[in-house]
Amino acid sequence: MHNSRLWKMADETVDLFVKTVRLPTTLLEKVSDALENARKRQARSASYQEEPSRPARMKPPETSQT
After folding, report:
1. pLDDT at 34
2. How much is the pLDDT for 51?
3. Burial tier of 2 (Cβ tally within 10 Å: 0-12, 13-18, 19+)
4. How many helices (H) and strands (E) does the chain have?
5. What is the sign of the dihedral through the CA atoms of 39, 43, 45 and 46?
6. Of the candidates 44, 50, 47, which has an alpha carbon nearest to the alpha carbon of residue 58?
7. Measured on CA atoms in the order 51, 55, 60, 61, is the torsion positive or negative?
8. Which parts of this chain are annotated as the region Disordered (predicted)?
9. 34-44: b or e for each residue (b if 16 or more CB lie within 10 Å)?
10. Does pTM surpass 0.85?
């Protein structure tokens, strides 16, 4: 009976350890995903900002010619 109690405590300790290790892993995954999404968003916004600026650069020569 004493041994089974020790085994149960050992199993609970292992379960707690696994949960403790898994938590930072999932947090790191979430942070990594958030950073990746932020990079994608920044790249998208940069490409959107470049597209309108190109026609804007082309418009002044057209207006100066007319």
Report:
1. 92
2. 60
3. exposed
4. 1, 0
5. positive
6. 50
7. positive
8. 38-66
9. eeeeeeeeeee
10. no
Collapsed DSSP state (helix, strand, coil) of residue 66: coil
pLDDT, tens only, 19-44: 887 777 788 888 889 999 999 998 88
Amino acid present at 8: K
Alpha helices, H only, 1-66: 2-65
Amino acid at 44: R
Per the document, the length of the chain is: 66
**CA separation for the pair 52, 33 (Å, rounded):** 29
Task: Give the position of tokens 């999932």.
Answer: 26
Using H for helix, E for strand and C for coil, what is the string for 14-27?
Answer: HHHHHHHHHHHHHH
Which amino acid is residue 4, in one-letter code? S
